[in-house]
TrEMBL record:
Pfam families: A-sol_ELP1 (PF23925), Beta-prop_ELP1_1st (PF04762), Beta-prop_ELP1_2nd (PF23797), HB_ELP1 (PF23936), TPR_ELP1 (PF23878). Residues 1113-1130 have a biased composition (Low complexity). It comes from the Eukaryota. Residues 124-316 form the ELP1 first N-terminal beta-propeller domain. Belongs to the ELP1/IKA1 family. Residues 653-860 form the ELP1 alpha-solenoid domain. Residues 867-1030 form the ELP1 TPR domain. Residues 1101-1112 have a biased composition (Polar residues). This is Elongator complex protein 1. Residues 1099-1130 are annotated as: Disordered. Residues 1039-1213 form the ELP1 three-helical bundle domain.
Amino acid sequence: MAAPLEKFHQVENARSARHLAVNFDNGVIYCASDRHVTGFDPVSGQVDLQVSLDSVEDVDRAARVVGLHHLAEDCALCVATSTGDILLVNLDTTQVEGVGSVASGVTAMGWSPASEIVCITTAEFVQVGWGKKETQFHGSVGKQAAQVKAEAMKPVTDWDDRCPRVTWRGDGMFFAIGSIHPDTGARQVCVWSREGVHHSTSENVDGIEQSLAWRPSGSLIATSQRRPNKHDIAFFEKNGLRHGEFTLPFKPDEIKVVEVCWNSSSTVLAVWCEDIDNKNSYVQLWTTGNYHWYLKQSLQFPGGEGHVRGVTWDPEHEFRLHVLAGAGGYLQYTWAWTTSNSQGRTGDDQAIVAVIDGASVLMTPMRDMIVPPPMCAYKLELPAPVNQVVFAPPPHSNDLAVVLIDNRIVIYRFEGKPAGEGVKVEAAGGNGFKHCCQFPTLQGIYSITGLEETSSYPLCLSHFTWVGDDVIVFSTVTMDTCPRSVLHKARIGDSAITVERSCPVESQIFGVAFDPNSLAVAIQLMDGSLLKYDHNDDMVLPWETSKGEEVQFVVPCSSMAVCDIGGEIASNCTSMMVHDEFLLLTTLQHTCRCISRHTPVKDLPTLSDGKAHPFDESIRRVERGSQIVISVPDDTKLVLQMPRGNLETIHPRALVLTAVRKQLDKLQFNEAFTIMRKHRINMNLLNDHNPEVFTANVGLFVRQVANVNHINLFLTDLLEEDVTVTMYTAAYERNKSVLPGGLNTQEQGKNKINTVCDAIRQALIDIDENQYLLSILTTYVRKTKPELEEALHIVKKLRELPVNLPHISAEEALKYLVFLVDVNELYDIALGTYDFNLVLMVAEKSQKDPKEYIPFLNDLRKLETNYQRFTIDKHLKRYEKALTHIVKCGPEHFQECLSLVNEHKLHTQALQLYPPSSSQYKEIANGYGDVLAEKRRHDEAAIMYVKGENWEAALSSYLACHQWQQVFCMTAHLKYSSDKEAEVARKLAEELKGRSRWGDAAVVQEQYAGEVEEAIVTLVQGSLWDEALRLMHKYKRTDFIETDLKPQLLESVEGLHGNLEQTRNTFLKQKARLAVVRQEKEKQRLELIESGGVCGGQDSDLFSDTSSATGESIQSSTPSTSSSVYSKMSGRSVKNRRKLEHKKWRLKEGSEFEDFALIASLAKSIKYVDDLRDEVRSLVRALVMFHYDKRGEQLQRDYDALLILLDQSIPEIWIDEDKDTEFKPVLGPTMTANAIALSVQQGRSVQTAADKEETTDPVVRFAPVLQKEKRWKLYALET
């Protein structure tokens, strides 16, 4: 605990005050002497209230004040006198009113915590007991216990004031009274309910003294007990039984305990003591942890005018103490919890934590050991109680200075020497054990010189800070017109610490923090403003931000550390610590946060929600009430203290990843590997941190790691994904390049596992192939497609090496392979090497029956080599290899080869193994043609038939695929007669006309069937006006112009006009409907947002039917339905799936994807109209040629107007939705949970594969492009 002396005043009317009360509304302090009540402002010292009993009517002259209490609701003071008068002092009017009287007099008064009930004790004594001892029940010991005589109780000491004490429990349900029993003369404690019903009486304990205080939390009642050999603070339970104690650091008859009092949070017990001879007064602050009581602060007041007259805790501020001295002096102290620890940032710092315990400092170097309190590694024993411990700045950050109660400073330095004077070794290796850490050496005990005369009150010197190698800064409080602090810079000399310079501060100092990096001192004042002190130039200036703004806190902060991160981080912080890379803090939601010091505050997620975001490495849950003790510099350890006092060490993932990154940047692969292995970090990070650097330094990686098992561990952990994007994306800011598959853009298209395995293997071979043989085998096995055959070749080579050479045996290598790979698969691979000895070695490691595989191998040995390998490959289903070997077996095995080809569809491979002129080649080609014909691939089948010189089959296939040019090539090969060829031509022409191939049909009719008239009619029907006119004039048949061409021309104009009008009407109707649908969806989306984002139905257009993302978690909305839908779809036929796809985009109003269906239909209409350019151009030219100018002009004008309409409508239909180029992840099998969680944290929408498919369909996403560059208009009609 660290505390400044905040207030010091001399109040004349409070010289003999004995009672204190605090007005927690305005902070006014009220004190009462025997006959006077005084109220004063603790800030200015101005007296606000003066009341004397002499001026109050009907108050006896012998009356003295025995109780004082502030009543907040009545704005009054309640005063009790010894003669029995109860007075109420109105604080607004200062009028005194008598509200009651007790005839027998009042000895003590105690109000309940809520000021609802008052307990008053009188001079009369009432015996409250449990009847006669002889008639009481004594349990298992029987009635003999009644005959046992109790030990005689000693009466109270002479200095006891013999006044009773009243104390209430924090909830106001019980109160306790400590008084002197009239029979024994000893003190005892009685507990009563708030209704005045007696609850219990304390057991007879000898030596109980006058002090009494009930812990507000209700667990213990504290008092003091004098024993023959020690002086204790004893505790009683509500039932009157003893419950522990602790010993005061005084001799048995040295002091007397005047009072004990608890602070409002029940965490600190103040013990007010005095020397027996009234020489000095003491106020000690005790705290507890792990069932041990620590003396945290000691205040020693001199006798005489400095004698303590009253002590009380502030009811509002839990660590503020009010003290009244005998000469009317008032002091106010405010403490705050702080952890005294070394401030280094390198590995040389031992991360020492110092704990004050009276005249001892408990020291534990957390880097070397975590010792649970109240134990410690070693203890510094000092000549006087300790009030503060200060550590030196780097580079000697382990050195420390201890401030004693008398303002002397003891300095210890670490010089590599064994434990010396004042150092008691405990858990670090005492009693003959080996020492586990370094120990400090006492440099000297120094007094402060050169300081102007200051007050002699305790803690007049505070806020000690070690800022330089030999420079210490501290502060004092002066009282000129108002209290303010003075900052002093002192230098450590050979025999004393000399003050060199003093600098007054505009207000009182509330807290001080030192930055070991910039060596700047941050000074926080009582009003929350922040100053910056530079001890080199002795300048005190306002602390400014990077924007030049002065820092001002709303309220003073009790915990301080210097860290420039820019802005408010959290409002729910319970403890914090500055790390090299992070600001570490615990929150009220029982989480530990690691905030990067390089991340702007505006980019941080909210820290007040208390939820641990999934896959966020910067947050982890901790035990309720955990507080940060220290973060070990240049390490991953974070030490937390639990509410009960014990320590726990955690390794936050953010700190671990930072340590790994640092080691990898320095190419310290072994250190990084050790950290990753210890904390179970995915080994892929070794490569993914910087793939190029890792690949370039693979040899260094192997030499550093060295251990074969460790290299194998790295290889077996390899994954294709980039873990810096998926698993550790919070530590690596690479999310902007995330692709749907979860890979980095750089890694896209690369085979990471194969690349790393090949690089590692080459490095292992170059360094020591024999030593790293098992790792080499692992590189073959771990490839994307395991190269088990290569691994077995290595085993085969090992078997052939001489036995006397130092290497791993083939047996060991094979055993390792069997560990990595399924032995049955390995058996098949070994069999595929055609090495039967190797096969036998593998088979012996398997569970195969020798009666099965040995006869099989013996049969294979008898076969000819090529046929043997064919049999093996066929057995292993390696049909392509089997084909190569069966081909080499000769013509006598061709039928077996043909069966293999036909059965396993190996025609392409087989054709490459035979010469084209061979009969085998032609037979395989014809067989392949039959296969393709069955699959209705007639064009490819015809080619195979041509290769096999099967002209009839080729002709049939060409006819089936309507390749009329090749048809007549085949008729030439078959030497068809003219009549037979004409018959084929007529049949083919009809089929071509049926497929609207009018031009091809006309050519066939004219050139091969000899039917010119039919060819002209065909061209006219196909609207091929120019070609029809050519044939008419060529064969002198212009009569067809009047009979066929002109009627067909007019009919085409009418038909085209009708199609254009219908298309126009449909287009406008669908375009209007699309606008309505979009408006409805936008309305639904806004309603959904206003309602809190809850999806209204299973088939919502706005969200996927498989999942929904709300807040910070991914929750399934209809899991059973969606999973069954997609599982059924996977089993449907291709035809049914196509039907379902077409059905999904329905134009029915209100359908799920109506907007997409409308866009697709509009795109179809636009493409249809745009493709009519050539047809319209040809038709308009023909109309003008035959003097139908008006009709041609009308057609050209109508078509042009429709094209303009379509062109203007495209931007309205295809709205640009690609302005936000940010990647939106897609839920599906290729999406990682890390990327989903990250996108949810960053507020990006998450869509399903179905949504992705719909929105990324080219028809929906991209607008059709009009062929504006194509000429189709007639210039003559334009003019």
